[in-house]
């Protein structure tokens, strides 16, 4: 993808680019590369071309923030005439009668929906494979692109689309962003409000995946219906905390994955911020709270799915979730106690910087054919830094921060207090300007 979403929309608004030609070029790239990458569950070739042709005739084309920009949508949002699969053969196949609010906002902004991206069943896992494909990391196709927004991350990192929609319940945007060298934003609770959206007890939210901070900010502003979020401004005089300590277990993290945190700290110190090493008081109750919700959320979500058609790993997961719900283990006090500790920490700090991942991306394989335990062990080892911020409802994002000796991208997570999305984007843009990253594997 030669142009960013910002550049592409500017060219379409200026009538230097035609939405139909942009869509044709995008579909050609997908046809050439997605057989290897496996990003898409469905490519909407005919539908996208028809939508682009209608878009080109809009009287307000010159005012649209995403004018003509091809966008991939994660397989969790309803597109009129398509069904939502959730990575599962166990759900219904009735086409949605209309777009949901996420897709309506994308279309209203001028985006062209070119395809639906692959997710693991019920979005439970940090690897995205289904019976008909495996989403692979464009930097190393032997590795997973992550999950549950792994298809969206693969599509962007491979240059098939400039931006993609994702959702994040326990790191499902940030983890694949880190694995694929992207910018991924999980906004705070309620920033992207959708009717009846309380997935995983309010921990899940929608968000953008992009190759630049400006593109991520633009897509976030559209998803949140808040144009001000697209205006990225450099921050001044922030209190930055660096931490590489794994919550609760303090398990060792490879030095190559923690080194970028210190490097970013040095960069931010040189930019005039106050930087120190400090770690929140995580606590066992908070970690137990997110694990309980990880089990119970999918259990409640799956009430309309056919149990006989669910994957064996999913049936095990749902049984554990049902037991936790019946035992009353989803308690508000675990969240409130963690919020008290998080508020205490952010009273003294403006931004927390951690690794995004605690291990390298697992191998790309048909994980859905493995046992629950074979899935759970690498998932839990991979993602300890991410989920607590879903429980708190705090904004967090992952940005590229270097390369591993294997050639894979490395990411760092930035966290802020509620309302801190603009601050996060400003810090990320400051890092990007001082330590630019390649936008895609071949750039």
Automatic annotation (TrEMBL):
Top-level taxon of origin: Bacteria
Name of the protein: Amidase
UniProt similarity note: Belongs to the amidase family.
PANTHER family linked to this entry: GLUTAMYL-TRNA(GLN) AMIDOTRANSFERASE SUBUNIT A, MITOCHONDRIAL (PTHR11895:SF7), TRANSAMIDASE (PTHR11895)
UniProt cross-references to Pfam families, sorted A to Z: Amidase (PF01425)
Organism: Amycolatopsis xylanica
Coiled-coil boundaries: none
Molecular functions (GO terms): catalytic activity
Domain spans labelled Amidase: 21-425
Record SUPFAM superfamilies: Amidase signature (AS) enzymes
InterPro entries the UniProt entry points to: Amidase (IPR000120), Amidase_dom (IPR023631), AS_sf (IPR036928)
């Amino acid at each position: 993808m030669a142009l960013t979403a910002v550049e592409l929309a500017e060219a379409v608004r200026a009538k230097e680019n035609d939405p139909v030609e942009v869509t044709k070029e995008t579909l050609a790239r997908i046809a050439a590369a997605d057989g290897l990458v496996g990003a898409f569950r469905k490519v909407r070739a005919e539908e996208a071309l028809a939508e682009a042709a209608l878009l080109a005739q809009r009287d307000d084309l010159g005012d649209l923030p995403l004018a003509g920009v091809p966008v991939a949508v994660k397989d969790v949002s309803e597109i009129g005439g398509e069904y939502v699969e959730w990575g599962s053969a166990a759900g219904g196949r009735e086409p949605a009668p209309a777009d949901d609010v996420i897709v309506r906002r994308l279309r209203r902004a001028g985006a062209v929906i070119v395809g639906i991206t692959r997710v693991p069943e019920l979005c439970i896992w940090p690897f995205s494979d289904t019976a008909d494909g495996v989403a692979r990391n464009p930097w190393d196709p032997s590795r997973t692109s992550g999950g549950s927004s792994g298809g969206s991350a693969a599509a962007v990192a491979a240059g098939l689309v400039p931006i993609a929609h994702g959702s994040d319940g326990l790191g499902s945007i940030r983890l694949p962003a880190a694995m694929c060298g992207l910018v991924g934003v999980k906004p705070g609770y309620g920033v992207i409000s959708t009717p009846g959206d309380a997935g995983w007890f309010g921990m899940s939210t929608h968000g953008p995946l992009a190759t630049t901070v400006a593109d991520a900010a633009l897509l976030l502003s559209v998803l949140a219906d808040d144009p001000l979020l697209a205006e990225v401004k450099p921050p001044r005089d922030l209190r930055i905390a660096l931490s590489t300590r794994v919550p609760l277990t303090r398990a060792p993290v490879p030095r190559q994955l923690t080194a970028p945190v210190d490097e970013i700290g040095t960069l931010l110190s040189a930019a005039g911020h106050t930087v120190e090493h400090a770690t929140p008081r995580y606590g066992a109750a908070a970690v137990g709270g997110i694990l309980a919700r990880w089990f119970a959320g999918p259990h409640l979500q799956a009430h309309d799915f056919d149990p006989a058609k669910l994957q064996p790993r999913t049936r095990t997961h749902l049984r554990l979730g049902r037991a936790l719900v019946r035992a009353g283990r989803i308690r508000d006090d675990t969240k409130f106690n963690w919020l008290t500790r998080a508020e205490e920490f952010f009273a003294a700090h403006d931004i927390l910087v951690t690794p995004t991942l605690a291990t390298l991306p697992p191998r790309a394989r048909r994980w859905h054919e493995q046992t629950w335990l074979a899935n759970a062990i690498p998932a839990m080892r991979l993602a300890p830094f991410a989920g607590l911020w879903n429980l708190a409802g705090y904004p967090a994002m992952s940005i590229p921060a270097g390369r591993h000796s294997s050639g894979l991208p490395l990411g760092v997570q930035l966290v802020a207090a509620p309302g801190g999305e603009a601050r996060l984007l400003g810090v990320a843009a400051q890092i990007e300007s001082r330590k630019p990253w390649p936008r895609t594997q071949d750039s």
